[in-house]
Structure formats: C-alpha cells, structure tokens
Write a structure and sequence with these properties.
Blueprint lengths: L3 E2 L3 E3 L5 E9 L1 H4 L9 E2 L10 H19 L9 E5 L6 H6 L7 E3 L6 H14 L5 E8 L1 H8 L15 E2 L2 E8 L6 E6 L14 H20 L8 E4 L3 H14 L8 E3 L15 E2 L1 H18 L4 E9 L3 H5 L6 E9 L2
Parallel strand pairs: 3-4, 5-6, 5-7, 8-13, 11-12, 11-14
Antiparallel strand pairs: 1-2, 2-10, 3-9, 7-9, 10-15, 14-15
Helix pairs in contact: 6-7
Length: 335
C-alpha cells in the first residue's frame, strides 16, 4: 500500500492510538485559562533544583513517566522515546533521558517538536517497528530567554509583538492497540523563510510556514478546512494567528470559524504576555490537557494540529541571518 499521498503527506494504514498524556507547568501557566487541564502545577519555576535547566529536565522526565503510568504501561514496554526542547544540544532532554533507560531519538524542531514527534512516532508504529512510542517536549521561560534573548534579571522591555515562552513539559504515549483518538494523516512541512530577522517576531515569521503546510495538506488529502472540527497551530500568538487567517483568505479559504492558536489559549489577557505563548510546551500542554480531554469526551471528533517552529539560533541572529521556519501537521480523529 502506498502510504505517501500527494507531495508531502502520509496516510497511515494502521493509525496509532493516543493512549496516554500528561503535563506539568509553572505557576504562571497555572494561573492561566487552562489551569484545570494540567496534571501538576509547580509553585515556582525552579523547584528544588539548582538551575532552570535542571528544573526543565525534571519536568520532562516527570511528564514522560506520568504519561506512561496513565497509559497503564511500564517504562520497559516503550519501544522508543522521541523528545526535544529548545536549548542547545537538547540539554534538558538528554539529561531527562538518563534515568528512563529506553531507546531514544532526540528531535529539534523548536516549537514544532510535538507535532514532529507525533508524526515520526506514528511512522514507526505504522511501519511495524514497535508497539508503543512515547513523545516528550519541554520548554522553560527563564532558560530560553537567557539563551535566545536577555537574562530575565536584566528586565528588558519586551515589544508588543513578542511572546512568552511556556514553562512546562508534556508527555504522550502512542500505541498500536488500545482506545482513544487516532493519528490518521500527517503532513511534513518544509522550510519557509520570508526574510524576517527579528527574534521577537516569531509569530509573523512562522505564520507563512503554517499556511504553506495547511495549504499542502488540503491539496494532498482533499480535506477542506471544514472537514475538521478545529484546526490548531502551535504558538503563533495573536499577531501570527491574524496573519494565518489573512493569508488563507488570499488563497480563497476562510478558516475563522474553526481555527485557533494554542499560544492564544494559555494565558489571560492581564498576565502581560504580549502576543501570547510560545515554546515547545505551548502546543504540548494544550494538546495533552485540554484538546485530549475534548477528544476523549467527544466534544471534538477531528482536529488538525500544526506544530510551528522558528529555527533560528543565537549564532544565526548574530550573523544577521533571517529566520527559517517550519510547520508539521497531524490529523487526530476520535472514533
């Protein structure tokens, strides 16, 4: 059976089940709009750990372990762990994996990592290479700000277009058998770079990549936007979300009725996050909490989750490079 459809999409012959999810967040996320959908809310952003990076490692390890436990599985039943974060050399992820003792593939897709992990995990299971895969993502506001922008202690004023990196981690278990929503189709994104160089403007930089992937998904699968109850991007924020709607309208499609961005769903307006949330954990905590429960309850039947990633680095910024971006999409459908 030919599983590739069109130019960039995959139709799974044996769609994997999403059988377990878990998340952990920092205090600011716990004060936001989706507080009741988080498994664990930390009292502060460091806990009992000596650094922000070690706190992030703890969160990711906890989320993967908790997702496996909620799947009623043992860690040795997990064939592969696919995981990533925002830091150099996947620092938080690699240290989180030390105690888990499972075959591991590190992923760097920036904030698209959750969708990339779900996509690749589904490929592994559908291809017969295992029975269970765990996918994990994490981000930490203070650690990411220190690496990519300014030390938080410096108190640099953020422009209105900027976003707030989520402190949190999410774990997901995919299984060949079980119950729950299934990943039926995926569309692999390609790099889109329209020349934006401002690292504060990640939403505008990533929006064209999201539109490119969504448009290709439609062309490859024949599924119009109305096929889905909701279409979600990962972390474009309010500015990027508006651009996606505008760019899709220019292609003759109005998605305003069933489109939302995870980065606009996490914080309250008075929390001073400017354009909204960003980070690997943005789509991570929204999917493993709110969206997964809505799918389980039958309130959502079909969603398209598009992880969006801004693939710049501190080095590329200092060398005056523009920001290459990507978006991957996975269709998740409840039976």
């Amino acid at each position: 059976m030919q599983k590739k459809q069109g130019k960039q999409s995959i139709v799974f012959a044996v769609p994997p089940y999403v059988t377990g999810t878990a998340n952990i967040v920092g205090p600011m996320e716990g004060q936001g709009l989706l507080a009741s959908y988080y498994d664990k809310i930390m009292e502060d952003t460091i806990g009992q750990h000596p650094s922000w990076e070690k706190c992030e490692s703890f969160m990711l390890e906890w989320a993967v372990k908790e997702a496996v436990a909620k799947d009623s599985s043992q860690m040795d039943e997990i064939d592969y762990i696919l995981a990533g974060d925002l830091l150099n050399q996947l620092m938080s992820t690699h240290f989180a994996m030390r105690s888990l003792g499972r075959p591991f593939l590190g992923l760097y897709g920036a904030c698209s990592t959750l969708a990339e992990g779900l996509l690749l995990g589904s490929v592994l299971l559908d291809g017969g290479f295992g029975n269970k895969v765990a996918v994990g993502v994490s981000s930490h506001h203070d650690a990411a700000e220190r690496q990519y922008r300014f030390p938080t202690e410096q108190g640099v004023q953020r422009p209105p277009i900027s976003q707030w990196t989520v402190t949190g981690a999410a774990g997901t278990v995919l299984s060949l058998t079980g119950q729950g929503p299934r990943i039926t189709v995926a569309t692999v994104g390609k790099i889109v770079d329209l020349g934006i160089k401002d690292p504060n403007a990640m939403g505008p930089a990533m929006a064209p990549a999201a539109v490119d992937t969504l448009w290709q998904h439609i062309q490859d699968t024949g599924r119009q936007p109305a096929y889905y109850d909701m279409i979600y991007t990962g972390d474009l924020g309010r500015v990027g979300k508006k651009l996606v709607i505008q760019l899709m309208q220019e292609k003759g499609l109005d998605i305003t009725a069933n489109y939302e961005d995870c980065g606009c769903m996490i914080y309250r307006g008075e929390q001073d996050t400017q354009s909204g949330a960003s980070g690997c954990a943005s789509s991570g905590i929204v999917f493993t909490g709110y969206l997964y429960r809505q799918l389980q309850a039958g309130n959502l039947k079909k969603i398209l989750l598009m992880g969006t990633g801004s693939l710049h680095s501190t080095t590329s910024y200092q060398q005056k490079e523009s920001i290459p971006c990507i978006a991957h999409a996975v269709a998740i459908e409840a039976e």
